[in-house]
């Protein structure tokens, strides 16, 4: 039980990487606030995990809702030891084709959300003598990708903010790290399979984006997050763990 008696919040936990992380955390002994913009999805995941999980609807762009999420962890389970800032969304577009409102929203969800959740989590972590913050960045921060200007910029900000927070809160015994996934199967790809003309070719294209020739699964990232959240990574802070099947090595 690598997280025995730990209390955690996982955002974006209604599906995908977040849901897999919440499941792994509970299995490893943690009590978890399963937070998501989709409250029904959050509650469904929490219900499936049992008494050591509670659902929470949260918009990570809204400071009042983030404060309430942290307060829920403290009032329900007695404190906070870990927060996984995983909530995010993507969008196709260059700087020329991305609308200003869309740019602001991508940055707000992916980067401001990390800022707000960390801002209000830090006092609760400090009250427990320290803890761990794990942010979901992306392997694209190291090499970029076409037609994702706002997303790449926001995830690059997450990577830089991780390093800044690691320095700012080392004296609080709060470690701050990030995980950088590559192509990970998600509900988005399930939807795409129903829309593309050649589903087999679509899947082959995804597999071809890494030398391991497979698409990552949410559990692949959840296990990396578990390591960064647990005491097994006690000497790691300010780091980014890339889990992308070798894509960033090309």
UniProtKB/TrEMBL annotation:
Alphabetic keyword roster: Oxidoreductase
Organism: Metarhizobium album
NCBIfam families in alphabetical order: PRK06138.1 (NF004791), PRK07231.1 (NF005559)
Superkingdom per UniProt: Bacteria
Sequence similarity: Belongs to the short-chain dehydrogenases/reductases (SDR) family.
One Pfam family here: adh_short_C2
Lineage per the UniProt record: Bacteria, Pseudomonadati, Pseudomonadota, Alphaproteobacteria, Hyphomicrobiales
MF (Gene Ontology): oxidoreductase activity
Name the record gives this protein: Short-chain dehydrogenase
């Amino acid at each position: 039980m690598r997280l025995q008696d730990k209390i955690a919040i996982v955002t974006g936990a209604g599906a995908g990487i977040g849901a897999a992380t919440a499941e792994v955390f509970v299995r490893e002994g943690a009590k978890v606030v399963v937070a998501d913009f989709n409250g029904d999805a959050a509650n469904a995941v929490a219900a499936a995990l049992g008494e050591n999980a509670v659902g929470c609807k949260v918009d990570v762009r809204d400071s009042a809702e983030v404060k309430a999420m942290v307060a829920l962890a403290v009032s329900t389970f007695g404190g906070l030891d870990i927060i996984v800032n995983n909530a995010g969304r993507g969008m196709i577009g260059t700087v020329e084709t991305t609308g200003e409102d869309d740019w602001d929203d991508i940055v707000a969800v992916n980067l401001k959300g990390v800022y707000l959740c960390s801002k209000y989590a830090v006092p609760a972590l400090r009250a427990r003598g320290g803890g761990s913050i794990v942010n979901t960045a992306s392997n694209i921060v190291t090499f970029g990708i076409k037609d994702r200007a706002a997303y790449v910029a926001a995830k690059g900000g997450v990577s830089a903010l991780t390093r800044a927070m690691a320095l700012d809160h080392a004296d609080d015994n709060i470690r701050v790290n990030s995980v950088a996934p590559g192509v990970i199967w998600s509900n988005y790809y399930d939807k795409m399979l129903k829309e593309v003309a050649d589903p087999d070719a679509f899947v082959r294209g995804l597999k071809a984006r890494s030398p391991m020739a497979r698409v990552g699964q949410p559990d692949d990232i959840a296990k990396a997050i578990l390591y960064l959240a647990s005491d097994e990574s006690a000497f790691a802070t300010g780091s980014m763990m890339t889990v992308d099947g070798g894509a960033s090595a090309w």
